[in-house]
Amino acid sequence: MRNIEEEILTIIAEIIEKDPAEITLDAKFYEDLGVDSMMALEILTALEKKYRITIPEEKLPQITTLRETVAIAQEFLGRKEPADA
Q: Are 74 and 7 in contact (CB under 8 A)?
């Protein structure tokens, strides 16, 4: 099974139209990879859809690297209530 980091890397690479090999854990989305605010919003929406979580838009400025994006997704996945609790 693929881990969350690989899944998020695939999502980001698709949205920003880059080879996943170009996206390192600490590559800065805006400075290094040319991500704009619309792409960042698209990444946020894709994460919400994929993992069925809600990430407040206030977190958008923190989506700056793959490492940060994974941390945010994990933070909200940790808060998610199990469906059959």
A: no
